[in-house]
Amino acid sequence: MIDLASVRARIPALEQSVYLNTGGVAPLPEPVYRRLMSEFDERHLMGAPLNLRPRSFQEQKDRLRSELASFLGARAEEICFTRGVSDGANIVLNGYPWKEGDEIILTDEEYPSFILPALTLEKRRGIRIRVLKLVDDRATLLQRLEDLLSPRTRLVAVSHVTTDSGFRLPARAICSLAHQAGVQVYFDGAQAVGQLPVDLDWIGCDYYSLLSYKWLLGPYSAGLLYVRRDRQEDLDVDWVGARATASFDLKTRLLRLLPDARRFEFGPFPWPLYFALGDAAAWLSELGLRDIEEEVQQKVETLRTGLLAIPGVTIRSPAARDLRTGMVAFSLAAATGEAVSIALRQRRNIITRATDVRFDGVRACVAFYTSADEIDALLECLSDLAAEARRSTSIITSFPQGATP
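Given the sequence above, the corresponding structure tokens read:
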């Protein structure tokens, strides 16, 4: 069982607001902050560890890769360091050997990290984008996916958890269905890792990207790309850096890439951020990812019950427990999501985010450290706003600051 008071004491930023936007950028916990400062202090006081202790520094990086791989249910040779999901998406989508007419499947609630590379490939390589429309029913969703799969489908590239409604896709079932059709699967795990346990070997996907600064409670910004061992030769290395090579020689035109996921790494990395990410993952593991998931589900149930009791409020996130997460989206009749989100901040210092991908609404992120008082504050303020909206005869684009019903 998680000691909420102890956890909140280690996240001092929670004293500044009712923070319900972990799915945007998470507050930084004390152990993560202290690791960051320790790394920068070493560089400030002693110098670059690459120069001072090259062997132990390399061992430190290797150990980090292994620990993060274990955290994800993967192997170290399947982990590539990135700056975030967009890096991974470009590595995978641009590295895949597309032919004109090949198809990629996205959902209708994807983040630009997947959409933009796909649109670029559509124009440059002539691929076809097909869209899976989400539905709050597991069997229907999987049937829709099966109906989209064709002999030209090459890749299903979808969010493990979507960014607006917090829809948790049935990852393992998607992989099974796609693989039966000879199709590879790539998940954007930005909104999944940290709020629920992720075991990539069990899920069975081919590729998986994540970043540090949302539910993992890490610094801004570091990331990882998982490339399953037997898929690494499937991808061309489109961006090549020195850290990706085993050896090269300009005179003889020799180029040998590393025989694992490191072949996809490029550019200098801000190692203090990655070491802090490792400490963030270790802290969450210590708390227990299963306990974190259960804590979130209980708080989400409380929030959903309260939202359903407010006239004019419609919940936009899935109701089924196996499809929902800590991201609860809702809309208020006769009011824009942006107006509601701004009013929540102005009146009660409640930090949320407006949504606009599949619907106009508001997203509230309930984390394991969210308190009952914070959920009550959201419901009370939203109840006031709903009463004001019911008295209005037109769409509300802004609420008067501090107004009361």
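The longest strand covers residues 153-159. Try to locate this feature in the token string yourself.
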